[in-house]
Write a structure and sequence with these properties.
With 405 residues, this protein is mainly alpha-helical. It has 17 helices and no strands. Helix 6 packs across helix 8.
């Protein structure tokens, strides 16, 4: 296989590992194939390479916080309360592979668009799958039978279509002359929005609302005037089950809300006991009963339903700072790309705004769910985090720009 074909193979298997997250085993096979091909290309002895000159594989502003996160993870494992449990989680470092692969294989704007468009279509298809589950009676608009699509958990389903929908909504907000992809953006926005509303996952609602406000503020600020009236109309036309669920967000007597407050209390006590390196990877789940509030509704919790609190409790505050620095570096880079290329009128405005929208949705959802540890969601999030640096390295390159192609 020639080097150019190997590079193409690395890219397409990378794209497929994102598009098949609904079948995680298949996705992981594609990820492994992409990694092998990318390594072959990188260390090949062939000197011929027609790709335009690019920046280093990982810019320092991303490499430094990512390296710090890995080092803190290893230190937390070494000083864990339960070393055997934490050593069993060392494989979690491999979950960072999609970020490295994004930097390695996304070499052209056209490739970035292929992956993003695939995610838009995937989000629409997954949302349609979930809606069909309700129509067929396999799920319902009720807490005991929430739609999960092809995933094992309804929150994973919500997290995946939320990120896909963010790209679609940003594409829709940017407009364009390509009616085919505008139609895909409409489907990729509407179907996930409907599915999320019927999924009853309140954290995803907050993240969706925040993402919509952000995109409108960046692209169409005058339309923010319609947000409040539209929200009122939406509440009035929603099914009663959805409306009651939305109202419950502010009800501290709600058992789920109270349980989250109890998890917050337990997590903060974990952090106060081991602030720098945490209890150790995997130890929060095994030791939660020791820190559980006496009135907590549940004796056992697999995680603390908050990515930031979970990271601080398991790996320590140093890991949380490194993680926040990774997100800030990515968000800052995509805003620089957006402004440098002309803002809303730029040729890649939809890509930059899509990345920013997905990051906003992901970081907001992380306050209500441990989406960093949700493998399917994390795969897409790592692609989102890395993509701004790929687009930065392509700025001014000879490759054609075409936001509507």
């Amino acid at each position: 296989m020639t080097r150019s074909r190997t590079r193409a193979f690395a890219f397409w298997t990378f794209a497929l590992q994102l598009w098949t997250v609904g079948a995680l085993a298949v996705s992981n096979v594609f990820m492994g194939l992409s990694a092998v091909a990318a390594l072959f290309v990188r260390f090949s002895r062939e000197r011929r390479d027609r790709t335009p000159a690019r920046a280093p594989l990982m810019p320092a502003r991303l490499a430094l916080p990512l390296g710090a996160f890995v080092l803190v993870f290893l230190a937390s494992t070494a000083f864990s309360y339960e070393p055997r449990t934490s050593l069993g989680r060392i494989g979690e470092l491999l979950s960072l592979l999609p970020l490295l692969l994004t930097l390695a294989v996304v070499e052209r704007e056209s490739q970035a668009r292929v992956v993003v468009r695939g995610l838009m279509v995937m989000g629409a298809l997954l949302a349609a799958f979930g809606l069909l589950q309700i129509a067929a009676g396999g799920a319902g608009v009720e807490l005991s039978r929430r739609m999960a699509g092809p995933f094992s958990h309804y929150q994973t389903f919500a997290g995946v279509i939320l990120l896909c929908g963010a790209f679609a909504f940003a594409r829709l907000a940017c407009g364009g002359s390509d009616s085919g992809w505008i139609a895909a953006a409409i489907a990729g926005t509407a179907l996930p929005a409907i599915a999320l509303s019927l999924n009853l996952t309140r954290g995803s609602w907050v993240a969706l609302a925040g993402m919509v406000v952000f995109v409108l503020a960046m692209r169409r600020p005058r339309q923010l005037l319609w947000v409040a009236p539209a929200a009122i109309v939406l509440v009035l036309v929603l099914p009663p089950a959805v409306r009651d669920r939305a109202v419950s967000i502010f009800d501290l007597r709600d058992e789920s809300n109270y349980d989250r407050l109890c998890m917050l209390d337990a997590g903060l006590r974990m952090v106060s006991e081991r602030p720098l390196l945490g209890l150790g990877p995997g130890v929060v789940e095994t030791r939660y009963p020791l820190y559980r509030h006496p009135t907590a509704p549940r004796d056992h919790r697999p995680h603390l339903h908050d990515s930031y609190l979970q990271l601080a409790a398991e790996y320590g505050v140093l890991a949380l700072v490194a993680y926040a620095a990774i997100l800030i570096a990515s968000f800052g880079q995509t805003l620089r790309n957006y402004r440098r290329e002309g803002g809303a009128s730029g040729p890649r405005a939809d890509l930059h705004l899509g990345v920013a929208a997905a990051l906003v949705a992901y970081t907001l959802a992380a306050f209500f769910e441990d989406n960093w540890a949700d493998t399917e969601v994390q795969k897409i999030a790592l692609f989102v985090i890395a993509l701004p640096f790929c687009l930065d390295s392509l700025s001014g390159s000879a490759w054609p720009n075409s936001s509507s192609s």
